[in-house]
Amino acid sequence: MAKSAVMKKPIGQRMKEFLIDFGRQWEIQSMIWPGIIFMVIFCYVPIYGLTIAFKSYTVIDTIDTAPWVGLENFRIIATDKYFWDSVVNTLGISFLKLAIGFVIPIILAIMIYELSMGRFKKIVQTISYLPHFLSWIVLGGMLITWFSTTGLFNQLLLDLGLISQAQNILLDPEKYWWIAVLSDIWKEAGWGTILYLAIMAKIDPTYYEAAKIDGASRLRQIWNITLPNMKMIISLNLILTVSGLLGSNLDQTLVLMNSQNRAKAEVINSYVYRMGMTQGDFSYATAVGLGVSIVSVILLVVANKVTSKLNDNQSVL
After folding, report:
1. What is the signed CA dihedral for 250, 252, 258, 264, rounded to 10 degrees?
2. How far apart are CA 307 and CA 300, in angstroms?
3. CB neighbour list of residue 290: distance below 8 Å, 6 or more residues apart
4. Rounded to the nearest 5°, which phi and psi values hold at 266?
5. In 3D, which of 126, 308, 121, 110 has the Cα closest to residue 203?
6. At 182, which helix (H) or strand (E)?
7. Which of 33, 27, 93 is nearest to 257 (CA)?
8. Taking every annotated instance into account, which residue ranges of this chain make up the domain ABC transmembrane type-1 (predicted)?
9. What region does 70 belong to: left with phi over 0, alpha with psi -120 to 50, or beta?
10. Which of 75, 146, 216, 290 has its CA 20 to 30 A from that of 299?
């Protein structure tokens, strides 16, 4: 009723009331303007640059003077074998990360939450968070050293008798997907527990006390109390993960990819980087990026619809 009454007011009167309210709160309102200006300059103005996906753009052209070619760049994409190879690699690595890397932070968070020793819990959390704060340059250098013929992994496998001859593991393209997936989990699993631990900290302890009185085991309490209370944040993380299936980690790829494993290591982001920055085909790279963005939005919408069905038609977005 109140909303309809407000809508019946003339536009001039509503605008006058808005300006009066804005004048009363100008100190608070002014705090948001730097963020709005930043977003407009760096998020909305660059959208105009997407037009070069439909042009033949070179470094000697401007966006306005570059000739239009319509959907020619997209036609080239559809017949580009190397692009589709990067799509296969991206989806293969991303689905492995989704299947394994999405579940591990949940399990790790529950394990940390169940620890009764406060000091030991803090030590475990610190150790699990630490890799997140190291760049892929540092972690990539560590992996390159460990996987070399004289590195830690080869020496360990030789000592255990699992291999008879040392080999550089990063030069084997068939092993790259697993290296990318497991190293990414190692880096981000601990950091991914933060949201889950925050949600679990808000669960009413009386739920667990009542479950204990009823004779529920610890696993039963986790299944019937902990996980249901984490349902919304799990759904949100799932939506964001699914929408990013085509956005494999560029930093990781550039560090770990080499001429020997490129066939399995090249992902869409590195392919776009190579075509745009290395070969100077900006129009083609922009067209690929635009196509990936459109597909990512579609995945976001679909994932949101699916998770809302699983959450009694309650959307988390």
Report:
1. -80
2. 11
3. 50, 53
4. -65, 120
5. 110
6. helix 176-188
7. 93
8. 87-303
9. left
10. 75
Q: Kindly write down the DSSP assignment for every residue of 57-92, as one continuous string.
A: --TTS-TTTSPB-TTHHHHHHHT-HHHHHHHHHHHH
What is the length of the chain? 317
Tokens found for residue 162: 């699992």
0.85 exceeded by pTM: no
> What crossing angle do the helices spanning 282-310 and 231-243 adopt, rounded to 10°?
160
Name residues whose C-beta falls within 8 Å of residue 174's C-beta, 6 or more positions apart in sequence. Answer: 264
Strand, coil or helix: what is 68?
A: strand
Q: Are 310 and 235 in contact (CB under 8 A)?
A: yes
Residues β-bridged to residue 55 = 68
Q: To 5 degrees, how large is the angle CA 246–CA 249–CA 251?
A: 145
Per-residue model confidence as pLDDT tens for the chain (317 residues)? 444 555 567 787 888 888 888 888 888 888 888 889 999 999 888 888 889 999 988 888 888 888 899 899 999 999 999 999 999 999 999 999 999 989 999 999 999 988 877 788 888 888 998 999 999 999 999 999 999 888 888 888 888 888 888 888 899 899 999 999 999 999 999 999 998 999 998 888 899 889 988 888 888 999 989 998 898 889 889 888 888 888 878 899 999 999 899 999 999 999 999 998 888 888 999 999 899 989 998 988 888 888 887 777 666 66
Looking at the domain that runs over 81-310, which CATH code has it been given? 1.10.3720.10
Closest CA to 248 of 237, 233, 232, 264: 264
Question: Which sequence spans correspond to the domains of the chain?
Answer: 81-310
Cβ–Cβ under 8 Å, residues 236 and 304:
no
DSSP state of 226: I
- The rounded distance, in Å, linking the Cα atoms of 223 and 196 is 15
Cα–Cα dist 123/105, whole Å: 17
